[in-house]
């Protein structure tokens, strides 16, 4: 039995007319009639009751119609799925996010994928530092990373999408909370709260900014992530320099202030150079313009009220 026999049978069953079915199939009527007789012979059952005036389905034909339509529908779905996968438009994307990027950029990424690649499912792996993401990309446990360069090794491909200025986070009752803008040298006597990881790209950027201002930051406390770091700031244990995206984590008792001369940290899409994934290529092609367009990721703003949350 060939698939064309099923298509021929369905066409006749839906029209109940060999002539109209032949026209739909662009097939000569005698050839169609012969194919249906072959199908009936192979099945050992009569599928159509034929008279000089009409053609109708037999009980066996009615059963076979439902099954033939199911088979053809399943085949059509399979062909569509294969083509979507081959074109990178269907599948599961395992994506890693560093620090606050999940809060600040994930909504835009999710909306963009839903709009442009609706058959791509997103598996989010948050709070992964850059080295951890690179290891997971190399092992094949992540498909795409959203991380902060630089990366070690030459087997990770990067597409930088944003440069985030460092901003200041201080307790609401801190002397600098009243200042709309703060200069980095004004922080030389402050106790800093930093990230616990020795591989923190943000820590390195903070150190470079402070050293450029003529001092070395005194880190008195450490935190595993930004949420805990800001909680320590709210508790009055110190100040912190954090990426702008930290504004996406408003916390009572913390005030954010711009820094006039601080450095910046980059955000980049990253994938393993050896990956031949059509899905990754399609996602990067869609996300890069969305993430780099002006105003793509809204930045939280704050009125200069040190008693409020930010």
Automatic annotation (TrEMBL):
InterPro entries: LysR_HTH_N, LysR_subst-bd, WH-like_DNA-bd_sf, WH_DNA-bd_sf. Keywords: DNA-binding, Transcription, Transcription regulation. Residues 1-58 form the HTH lysR-type domain. It comes from the Bacteria. Transmembrane segments: none annotated. The keyword Transcription regulation applies. Belongs to the LysR transcriptional regulatory family. PANTHER family: HCA OPERON TRANSCRIPTIONAL ACTIVATOR HCAR, TRANSCRIPTIONAL DUAL REGULATOR HCAR-RELATED. This is LysR family transcriptional regulator. It comes from Prauserella alba. The lineage of its organism: Bacteria, Bacillati, Actinomycetota, Actinomycetes, Pseudonocardiales.
């Amino acid at each position: 039995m060939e698939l064309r026999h099923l298509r021929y049978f369905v066409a006749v069953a839906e029209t109940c007319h060999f002539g109209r079915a032949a026209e739909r199939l662009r097939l000569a009527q005698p050839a169609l009639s012969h194919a249906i007789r072959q199908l009936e012979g192979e099945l050992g059952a009569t599928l159509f009751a034929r008279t000089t005036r009409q053609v109708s389905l037999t009980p066996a034909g009615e059963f076979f119609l439902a099954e033939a339509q199911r088979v053809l529908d399943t085949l059509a779905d399979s062909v569509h799925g294969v083509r979507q996968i081959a074109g990178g438009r269907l599948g599961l994307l395992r994506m890693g996010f560093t620090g606050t990027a999940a809060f600040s950029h994930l909504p835009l990424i999710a909306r963009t994928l839903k709009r442009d690649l609706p058959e791509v499912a997103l598996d989010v792996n948050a709070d992964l530092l850059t080295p951890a993401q690179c290891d997971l990309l190399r092992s094949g446990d992540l498909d795409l990373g959203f991380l902060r360069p630089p990366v070690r090794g030459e087997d990770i491909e990067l597409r930088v999408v944003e440069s985030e200025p460092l901003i200041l986070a201080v307790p609401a009752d801190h002397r600098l909370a009243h200042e709309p803008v703060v200069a980095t040298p004004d922080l030389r006597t402050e106790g800093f709260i930093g990230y616990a990881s020795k591989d923190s790209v943000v820590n390195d950027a903070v150190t470079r900014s402070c050293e450029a201002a003529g001092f070395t930051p005194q880190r008195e406390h450490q935190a595993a992530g930004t949420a805990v770091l800001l909680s320590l700031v709210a508790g009055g244990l110190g100040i912190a320099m954090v990426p702008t995206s930290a504004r996406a984590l408003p916390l009572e008792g913390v005030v954010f202030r711009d820094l006039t001369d601080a450095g910046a940290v980059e955000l980049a899409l990253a994938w393993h150079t050896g990956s031949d994934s059509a899905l990754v290529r399609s996602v990067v092609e869609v996300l890069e313009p969305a993430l780099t367009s002006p105003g793509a990721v809204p930045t939280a703003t704050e009125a200069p009220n040190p008693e409020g949350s930010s």
